[in-house]
Write a structure and sequence with these properties.
The two termini are 25 Å apart. This protein has a four-stranded antiparallel β-sheet, with helices on one face. It is 28% helix and 37% strand. The chain is α+β, with helices and mostly antiparallel strands. It is elongated. 22% of the residues are buried. The chain has three helices and four strands; from the N terminus they run E-E-H-H-H-E-E.
């Protein structure tokens, strides 16, 4: 089963230029999670991802990371998603508006799978 979390807004430090290192900018984070089908069968929160809590963990991780590049921000958010027990894979898109004059936005996409004991 796929679960999409669209438009998570994160105000954080992001960017390489000196002026970007001293102010907050807003990122849009879109997440696509692969989760077990069980939640659709049981209709129970315990069988799925608490997406309100996950969105908060993504926000906290990006605020703490103070990334320079949106590519790194996408990886940070994807790692948070794959740390969830119910998530088997995640595709995270991080979008930054107004990064360059004349460019509406720039986006980075990170696709990752949850590591299991065999892969470590």
């Amino acid at each position: 089963m796929l679960l999409n979390l669209n438009g998570i807004r994160v105000d954080c430090v992001i960017g390489e230029r000196p002026d970007e290192r001293t102010r907050l900018q807003t990122l849009r984070v879109d997440v696509r999670l692969e989760i077990p089908d069980r939640a659709a069968e049981t209709d129970a929160l315990a069988d799925t991802v608490d997406y309100a809590a996950l969105a908060e963990r993504i926000r906290a991780a990006l605020v703490a990371a103070r990334c320079r590049m949106i590519e790194r921000a996408a990886k940070v958010a994807a790692d948070v998603c794959c740390a969830e027990d119910k998530v088997t894979s995640a595709v995270v898109t991080v979008t930054k508006r107004g990064a360059v004059p004349g460019l509406e936005s720039a986006s980075a996409v990170c696709e990752t799978k949850r590591k299991n004991k065999e892969n470590e």
